[in-house]
Design goal:
The protein has 82 residues and is mainly alpha-helical. The protein is built from 4 helices and no strands. The longest helix has 23 residues. The two termini are 15 Å apart.
Amino acid sequence: METQKISTYQRAQHEEVRANLELVYEALKEKGYNPITQIVGYVLSGDPTYITSHKNARSLIGRIERDELLEEMVREFLRDVM
């Protein structure tokens, strides 16, 4: 398997997705939701009502393409298990 270099731009994109996802997670948690099930529901359906508007979370997650969001979650998971 070849090693891929990640550009500075791509790295910044990953960091922005991660930071926004963390903010959304915290907003959902503060409102008493299970953040994992809510985010999964959003990723699967595309329905923004899975995400609270508390702390602008719905707007933040709306800035991220769902495929980018899924890529980042898989990347983090694999980073943790490998």
